[in-house]
């Protein structure tokens, strides 16, 4: 496929949800995401691909029988992290439609159904739980629990969806024979246009509620303070240190402060820890060490800390045979692991899944600076079409 053809379709969504930072605010089921979902239905219509909704907010555009046996799925997600890049997610959906075009133009007749899928709320940017749509589809989360998740305005996922989610698809494992998710690469690892995923690091999110005594910044003596900001600050540094010592990744990047006033000692600081490692024991070890150090520090600061586990994504090893087969189809493409979570990782617990990565020249992601060259994106579409032709 030429870079021009890729860019032609890409330009249709490029400005949707883009804000002045140059990044994207595409929260699941919020206006830009709803515009993208309409765009998805239009693209499907243009290609005579009927669209089904699994009742969980995930959309499927079908080439062949909807939910016939042994379908091969390809796709990704539209939602972004706040001020995120434009490729993380949508690249996989746009590439899915373009791969269908390419296969049809070449006269391919799939022997089994194929669908382009758009998973809902992959980033957890709005309702806090990543891969919500794929967790619902596979039964990894209780629909009532998912329905009750709230966004920052107090809107529940059930309200945004307009229904209680339907939950797992009956007969999922006989209906889906494979999922191939194409995604922009998010590290600094891929030096050729296209690679294949081997594994996803286990990862999770923990909420730390630090409580102290709100008081006046001008009149409260330093010795009398019970300032949870201090405990929080210490915990941020401890997380960084523990992760470095363990060869893991730990990040505290989201924080809420009450009352969040320049001249008031806070009564509450709420911070989120994102921790990841190559294996679960290492990740758990880092989290345990951070909790221990935060608790000790709270004792010294006269504050309290309560920790809640908000999400866990288990270690994923993608179907090794499928990855090797795909790498072979693509002329010995490199096979590499990633520290980023994906819906394909959730599906991999039940069906053979694989991922294709498209080169990212700087490796930057979850940032407005995320970028992929149109030539590499076009190579990604070619690779995806090759794989889908083989699998269908
Ligand atoms: C999602 O992209 C994540 O890995 O957090
Ligand atoms: Mn992401
Ligand atoms: Mn993604
Ligand atoms: Mn992700």
UniProtKB/TrEMBL annotation:
Q: Which SUPFAM superfamilies match?
A: Bacterial exopeptidase dimerisation domain, Zn-dependent exopeptidases
Against Gene3D superfamilies, the record matches this protein to: 3.30.70.360, Zn peptidases (3.40.630.10)
Which InterPro entries does the entry link to? Amidase_Cbmase (IPR010158), Bact_exopeptidase_dim_dom (IPR036264), Peptidase_M20 (IPR002933)
Question: What are the TM regions of this chain, as residue ranges?
Answer: none
Q: Which domain of life is it from?
A: Bacteria
Pfam families reported for this sequence: Peptidase_M20 (PF01546)
Query: Keyword annotations for this protein?
Result: Hydrolase
Q: Which family does it belong to?
A: Belongs to the peptidase M20 family.
Q: What is this protein called?
A: Allantoate amidohydrolase
Q: Which species does the entry assign this protein to?
A: Paractinoplanes globisporus
């Amino acid at each position: 496929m030429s870079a021009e053809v890729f860019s032609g379709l890409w330009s249709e969504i490029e400005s949707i949800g883009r804000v002045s930072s140059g990044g994207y605010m595409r929260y699941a089921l919020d206006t830009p995401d709803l515009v993208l979902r309409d765009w998805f239905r239009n693209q499907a219509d243009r290609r005579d691909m009927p669209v089904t909704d699994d009742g969980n907010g995930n959309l499927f555009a079908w080439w062949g029988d909807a939910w016939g046996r042994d379908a091969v799925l390809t796709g990704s997600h539209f939602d972004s992290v706040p001020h995120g890049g434009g490729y993380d997610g949508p690249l996989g959906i746009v590439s899915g439609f373009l791969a269908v075009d390419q296969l049809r133009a070449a006269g391919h007749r799939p022997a089994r159904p194929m669908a382009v899928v758009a998973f809902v709320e992959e980033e957890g940017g709005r309702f806090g739980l990543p891969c919500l749509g794929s967790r619902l589809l596979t039964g990894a989360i209780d629909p009532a629990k998912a329905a009750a998740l709230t966004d920052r305005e107090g809107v529940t996922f059930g309200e945004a969806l307009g229904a209680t989610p339907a939950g797992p698809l009956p007969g999922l494992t006989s209906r889906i024979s494979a999922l191939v998710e194409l995604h922009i690469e998010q590290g600094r690892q891929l030096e050729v246009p296209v690679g294949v995923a081997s594994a996803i690091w286990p990862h999770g999110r923990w909420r730390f509620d630090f409580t102290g005594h709100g008081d006046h910044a001008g009149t409260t003596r330093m010795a009398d303070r019970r300032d949870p900001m201090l405990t929080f600050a210490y915990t941020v540094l401890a997380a960084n240190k523990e992760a470095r010592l363990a060869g893991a990744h730990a990040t505290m990047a989201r924080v809420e402060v009450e009352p969040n006033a320049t001249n008031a000692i806070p009564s509450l600081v709420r911070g989120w820890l994102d921790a990841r490692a190559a294996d679960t024991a290492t990740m758990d070890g880092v989290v345990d060490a951070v909790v221990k150090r935060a608790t000790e520090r709270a004792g010294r600061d006269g504050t309290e800390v309560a920790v809640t586990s908000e999400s866990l994504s288990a270690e994923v090893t993608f179907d090794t045979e499928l990855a090797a087969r795909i790498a072979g189809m693509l002329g010995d493409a490199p096979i590499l692991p990633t520290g980023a979570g994906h819906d394909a990782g959730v599906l991999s617990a039940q069906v053979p899944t694989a991922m294709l990565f498209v080169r990212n020249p700087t490796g930057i992601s979850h940032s407005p600076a995320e970028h992929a060259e149109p030539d590499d994106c076009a190579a990604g579409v070619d690779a995806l079409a090759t794989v889908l032709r083989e699998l269908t």
